[in-house]
Amino acid sequence: MAAFVDPHLLRGKTVLITGASGGIGFVTARELARRGAHLVLVCRDPARAENSQAAIVEAVPGAQADVLLCDLSLIANVRELAAEVGRRYDKLDVLVNNAGVMPGPLTITAEGHELSWATNHLSVHALTNLLLPQLDAAGQARVVTVASDGHWLGEIEPSQAARNDPEKYSSFAAYCDSKLANILFTNELAHRLDLTGITANCLHPGIVNTGLVPPTRSGLLKTVWGLGKPFMVSPERGAQTSIFLASAPEVQHISGRYFKHSKPARLLSSRAQNRAEASRLWRISEEETGIG
Protein backbone atom coordinates (compact mmCIF):
# COMPACT_ATOMS: atom_id res chain seq x y z
CA MET A 1 0.00 0.00 0.00
CA ALA A 2 1.37 3.43 -0.95
CA ALA A 3 2.19 5.79 1.91
CA PHE A 4 -0.30 8.57 2.47
CA VAL A 5 0.78 11.94 1.09
CA ASP A 6 -0.89 15.01 2.54
CA PRO A 7 -1.81 17.19 -0.47
CA HIS A 8 -2.13 20.21 1.82
CA LEU A 9 1.21 19.91 3.64
CA LEU A 10 2.93 22.53 1.46
CA ARG A 11 -0.15 24.37 0.23
CA GLY A 12 0.72 28.05 -0.14
CA LYS A 13 4.47 27.28 -0.03
CA THR A 14 6.86 28.22 -2.82
CA VAL A 15 9.71 25.76 -3.39
CA LEU A 16 12.65 26.38 -5.72
CA ILE A 17 14.62 23.32 -6.87
CA THR A 18 17.79 23.48 -8.96
CA GLY A 19 18.61 20.67 -11.34
CA ALA A 20 14.93 19.74 -11.55
CA SER A 21 14.89 18.34 -15.08
CA GLY A 22 15.89 14.79 -14.15
CA GLY A 23 17.11 12.34 -11.53
CA ILE A 24 16.47 13.06 -7.87
CA GLY A 25 15.74 16.71 -8.64
CA PHE A 26 12.77 15.79 -10.80
CA VAL A 27 11.47 13.22 -8.29
CA THR A 28 11.84 15.74 -5.47
CA ALA A 29 9.89 18.33 -7.46
CA ARG A 30 7.11 15.93 -8.38
CA GLU A 31 6.67 14.67 -4.82
CA LEU A 32 6.65 18.17 -3.36
CA ALA A 33 3.98 19.06 -5.93
CA ARG A 34 1.93 16.14 -4.54
CA ARG A 35 2.19 17.88 -1.18
CA GLY A 36 0.73 21.08 -2.62
CA ALA A 37 3.89 23.14 -3.24
CA HIS A 38 4.13 25.85 -5.88
CA LEU A 39 7.27 24.76 -7.71
CA VAL A 40 9.99 26.84 -9.31
CA LEU A 41 12.02 24.47 -11.48
CA VAL A 42 15.52 25.72 -12.30
CA CYS A 43 16.90 23.86 -15.30
CA ARG A 44 19.66 24.37 -17.84
CA ASP A 45 18.20 22.64 -20.91
CA PRO A 46 14.92 24.11 -22.28
CA ALA A 47 13.62 20.86 -23.80
CA ARG A 48 14.27 18.81 -20.68
CA ALA A 49 12.74 21.54 -18.55
CA GLU A 50 9.57 21.52 -20.64
CA ASN A 51 9.37 17.72 -20.42
CA SER A 52 9.78 17.78 -16.64
CA GLN A 53 7.17 20.47 -16.22
CA ALA A 54 4.71 18.50 -18.37
CA ALA A 55 5.43 15.25 -16.50
CA ILE A 56 4.79 16.90 -13.13
CA VAL A 57 1.50 18.41 -14.26
CA GLU A 58 0.46 15.04 -15.71
CA ALA A 59 1.33 13.24 -12.46
CA VAL A 60 -0.22 15.93 -10.25
CA PRO A 61 -3.15 17.55 -12.06
CA GLY A 62 -3.45 21.21 -11.18
CA ALA A 63 0.16 21.44 -9.99
CA GLN A 64 1.84 24.83 -10.24
CA ALA A 65 5.28 24.36 -11.79
CA ASP A 66 7.11 27.38 -13.16
CA VAL A 67 10.36 27.04 -15.10
CA LEU A 68 13.40 29.30 -14.94
CA LEU A 69 16.34 28.52 -17.21
CA CYS A 70 19.85 28.96 -15.87
CA ASP A 71 23.34 27.56 -16.41
CA LEU A 72 24.50 27.62 -12.80
CA SER A 73 28.18 27.26 -13.68
CA LEU A 74 28.39 31.05 -14.21
CA ILE A 75 27.89 33.38 -11.26
CA ALA A 76 26.63 36.11 -13.59
CA ASN A 77 23.79 33.75 -14.54
CA VAL A 78 23.09 33.00 -10.88
CA ARG A 79 22.77 36.73 -10.21
CA GLU A 80 20.26 37.05 -13.07
CA LEU A 81 18.33 34.03 -11.77
CA ALA A 82 18.11 35.47 -8.25
CA ALA A 83 16.97 38.82 -9.62
CA GLU A 84 14.23 37.09 -11.63
CA VAL A 85 13.11 35.12 -8.57
CA GLY A 86 12.97 38.39 -6.63
CA ARG A 87 10.78 39.97 -9.31
CA ARG A 88 8.36 37.03 -9.51
CA TYR A 89 8.02 35.84 -5.93
CA ASP A 90 7.52 37.79 -2.71
CA LYS A 91 8.71 34.89 -0.60
CA LEU A 92 10.47 31.55 -0.88
CA ASP A 93 9.66 28.85 1.65
CA VAL A 94 12.12 26.18 0.55
CA LEU A 95 15.31 26.27 -1.52
CA VAL A 96 16.61 22.87 -2.63
CA ASN A 97 20.18 23.11 -3.93
CA ASN A 98 20.14 19.91 -5.94
CA ALA A 99 22.02 20.62 -9.18
CA GLY A 100 25.38 18.93 -9.51
CA VAL A 101 27.90 17.77 -12.10
CA MET A 102 30.90 15.48 -12.24
CA PRO A 103 32.88 16.75 -15.25
CA GLY A 104 35.36 14.74 -17.29
CA PRO A 105 38.53 16.50 -18.40
CA LEU A 106 39.44 19.71 -16.61
CA THR A 107 36.97 22.37 -17.71
CA ILE A 108 37.39 26.03 -16.78
CA THR A 109 34.34 28.28 -17.02
CA ALA A 110 34.35 31.66 -18.76
CA GLU A 111 34.68 33.19 -15.27
CA GLY A 112 37.82 31.17 -14.53
CA HIS A 113 36.45 28.49 -12.17
CA GLU A 114 36.77 24.71 -12.40
CA LEU A 115 33.39 23.44 -13.57
CA SER A 116 32.34 21.23 -10.65
CA TRP A 117 33.53 23.78 -8.07
CA ALA A 118 31.53 26.48 -9.86
CA THR A 119 28.36 24.43 -10.33
CA ASN A 120 28.30 22.32 -7.19
CA HIS A 121 29.53 24.86 -4.67
CA LEU A 122 29.95 28.46 -5.83
CA SER A 123 26.46 28.56 -7.33
CA VAL A 124 25.03 27.21 -4.06
CA HIS A 125 26.85 29.85 -2.04
CA ALA A 126 25.80 32.61 -4.43
CA LEU A 127 22.17 31.63 -5.02
CA THR A 128 21.42 30.95 -1.36
CA ASN A 129 22.88 34.25 -0.21
CA LEU A 130 21.12 36.19 -2.96
CA LEU A 131 17.77 34.62 -2.08
CA LEU A 132 18.00 35.24 1.68
CA PRO A 133 15.57 38.20 1.47
CA GLN A 134 12.89 35.96 -0.10
CA LEU A 135 13.61 33.16 2.38
CA ASP A 136 13.44 35.57 5.31
CA ALA A 137 10.12 36.95 4.02
CA ALA A 138 8.59 33.48 4.43
CA GLY A 139 8.95 33.70 8.19
CA GLN A 140 10.07 30.10 8.46
CA ALA A 141 12.06 28.73 5.54
CA ARG A 142 14.39 25.86 4.71
CA VAL A 143 17.60 25.52 2.71
CA VAL A 144 18.28 21.93 1.68
CA THR A 145 21.56 21.09 -0.07
CA VAL A 146 22.39 17.76 -1.70
CA ALA A 147 25.89 16.76 -0.58
CA SER A 148 27.45 13.27 -0.56
CA ASP A 149 29.38 10.78 1.54
CA GLY A 150 32.09 11.48 -1.02
CA HIS A 151 32.94 14.46 1.18
CA TRP A 152 35.26 12.23 3.22
CA LEU A 153 37.79 12.31 0.35
CA GLY A 154 37.46 16.06 -0.16
CA GLU A 155 39.63 18.99 0.80
CA ILE A 156 39.31 22.71 0.27
CA GLU A 157 42.05 24.00 -1.98
CA PRO A 158 43.27 27.44 -0.89
CA SER A 159 43.22 29.04 -4.33
CA GLN A 160 41.65 28.98 -7.76
CA ALA A 161 45.07 28.26 -9.25
CA ALA A 162 45.35 25.05 -7.21
CA ARG A 163 41.92 23.85 -8.34
CA ASN A 164 42.70 24.69 -11.96
CA ASP A 165 46.11 22.96 -12.07
CA PRO A 166 45.96 20.39 -14.90
CA GLU A 167 48.85 18.43 -13.38
CA LYS A 168 46.89 17.76 -10.19
CA TYR A 169 43.36 17.60 -11.56
CA SER A 170 41.04 14.63 -11.00
CA SER A 171 37.35 14.96 -11.79
CA PHE A 172 36.43 12.61 -8.95
CA ALA A 173 38.60 14.50 -6.45
CA ALA A 174 37.11 17.79 -7.64
CA TYR A 175 33.62 16.37 -7.12
CA CYS A 176 34.49 15.22 -3.59
CA ASP A 177 35.97 18.65 -2.83
CA SER A 178 32.71 20.30 -3.89
CA LYS A 179 30.66 17.92 -1.72
CA LEU A 180 32.81 18.72 1.31
CA ALA A 181 32.20 22.38 0.48
CA ASN A 182 28.42 21.74 0.48
CA ILE A 183 28.61 20.47 4.06
CA LEU A 184 30.92 23.20 5.33
CA PHE A 185 28.72 25.81 3.63
CA THR A 186 25.63 24.37 5.32
CA ASN A 187 27.31 24.41 8.72
CA GLU A 188 28.43 28.01 8.37
CA LEU A 189 25.08 29.12 6.94
CA ALA A 190 23.19 27.52 9.83
CA HIS A 191 25.48 29.31 12.27
CA ARG A 192 24.95 32.67 10.55
CA LEU A 193 21.16 32.18 10.43
CA ASP A 194 20.89 30.93 14.00
CA LEU A 195 18.64 33.78 15.17
CA THR A 196 16.40 33.76 12.08
CA GLY A 197 13.52 31.57 10.97
CA ILE A 198 15.64 29.96 8.24
CA THR A 199 17.13 26.49 8.71
CA ALA A 200 19.92 24.89 6.64
CA ASN A 201 20.56 21.17 6.32
CA CYS A 202 22.35 18.91 3.85
CA LEU A 203 22.14 15.26 2.92
CA HIS A 204 23.62 12.20 1.29
CA PRO A 205 21.06 10.79 -1.20
CA GLY A 206 22.80 7.44 -1.57
CA ILE A 207 24.67 6.25 -4.63
CA VAL A 208 21.97 7.03 -7.14
CA ASN A 209 21.71 5.63 -10.64
CA THR A 210 21.45 8.91 -12.55
CA GLY A 211 23.32 10.59 -15.40
CA LEU A 212 25.99 12.05 -13.12
CA VAL A 213 28.61 9.98 -14.94
CA PRO A 214 27.56 10.05 -18.62
CA PRO A 215 27.91 6.93 -20.81
CA THR A 216 30.44 8.75 -22.99
CA ARG A 217 32.89 8.96 -20.05
CA SER A 218 35.99 6.80 -20.34
CA GLY A 219 38.65 5.71 -17.87
CA LEU A 220 38.69 4.43 -14.31
CA LEU A 221 35.67 6.40 -13.11
CA LYS A 222 33.44 4.89 -15.80
CA THR A 223 34.67 1.41 -14.88
CA VAL A 224 34.06 1.90 -11.17
CA TRP A 225 30.64 3.45 -11.85
CA GLY A 226 29.69 0.53 -14.07
CA LEU A 227 30.73 -2.04 -11.46
CA GLY A 228 28.74 -0.20 -8.81
CA LYS A 229 25.51 0.05 -10.80
CA PRO A 230 23.91 -3.12 -9.39
CA PHE A 231 24.24 -1.63 -5.90
CA MET A 232 22.87 1.82 -6.74
CA VAL A 233 19.49 3.10 -5.65
CA SER A 234 16.84 4.54 -7.94
CA PRO A 235 16.15 8.28 -8.16
CA GLU A 236 12.84 7.52 -6.42
CA ARG A 237 14.69 6.25 -3.36
CA GLY A 238 17.53 8.75 -3.66
CA ALA A 239 15.13 11.69 -3.48
CA GLN A 240 13.47 10.63 -0.22
CA THR A 241 15.76 12.53 2.15
CA SER A 242 15.49 15.71 0.06
CA ILE A 243 11.70 15.41 0.17
CA PHE A 244 11.79 14.78 3.93
CA LEU A 245 14.00 17.79 4.69
CA ALA A 246 11.94 20.05 2.43
CA SER A 247 8.56 19.12 3.87
CA ALA A 248 8.51 17.13 7.12
CA PRO A 249 7.13 19.06 10.13
CA GLU A 250 9.48 17.25 12.52
CA VAL A 251 12.60 18.94 11.06
CA GLN A 252 11.13 22.42 10.96
CA HIS A 253 13.46 23.70 13.69
CA ILE A 254 16.51 21.48 13.04
CA SER A 255 19.47 23.20 11.41
CA GLY A 256 23.11 22.57 10.58
CA ARG A 257 22.81 18.77 10.31
CA TYR A 258 23.81 16.13 7.79
CA PHE A 259 21.13 13.53 6.95
CA LYS A 260 21.06 10.04 5.42
CA HIS A 261 17.94 7.90 5.02
CA SER A 262 15.92 10.82 6.44
CA LYS A 263 17.84 10.67 9.73
CA PRO A 264 20.72 12.71 11.17
CA ALA A 265 23.99 10.99 10.28
CA ARG A 266 27.63 11.05 11.30
CA LEU A 267 29.99 13.00 9.09
CA LEU A 268 32.77 10.83 7.70
CA SER A 269 35.50 13.48 7.71
CA SER A 270 36.85 15.57 10.57
CA ARG A 271 37.31 18.38 8.03
CA ALA A 272 33.52 18.52 7.54
CA GLN A 273 33.07 19.28 11.25
CA ASN A 274 35.74 21.97 11.49
CA ARG A 275 34.29 25.42 12.20
CA ALA A 276 37.54 27.15 11.23
CA GLU A 277 37.48 25.31 7.89
CA ALA A 278 33.86 26.37 7.34
CA SER A 279 34.75 29.99 8.03
CA ARG A 280 37.76 29.78 5.70
CA LEU A 281 35.58 28.35 2.92
CA TRP A 282 33.07 31.16 3.37
CA ARG A 283 35.84 33.76 2.90
CA ILE A 284 37.12 31.97 -0.22
CA SER A 285 33.59 31.79 -1.63
CA GLU A 286 32.95 35.48 -0.95
CA GLU A 287 36.15 36.37 -2.78
CA GLU A 288 35.39 34.14 -5.77
CA THR A 289 31.74 35.13 -6.17
CA GLY A 290 31.66 38.66 -4.75
CA ILE A 291 28.62 37.50 -2.73
CA GLY A 292 28.18 36.60 0.90
UniProtKB/TrEMBL annotation:
Keyword NADP attached: no
Q: Which Pfam families match?
A: adh_short (PF00106)
Q: Which GO terms describe its molecular function?
A: oxidoreductase activity
Q: Which InterPro entries match?
A: NAD(P)-bd_dom_sf, SDR_fam
CDD domains registered for this protein in UniProt: retinol-DH_like_SDR_c_like (cd05327)
* Keywords (A to Z) from UniProt: Oxidoreductase
**The keyword Glycoprotein appears for this protein:** no
This one is known as SDR family oxidoreductase
- What organism is listed for this UniProt entry? Hymenobacter persicinus
Upper classification of the source organism reads:
Bacteria, Pseudomonadati, Bacteroidota, Cytophagia, Cytophagales
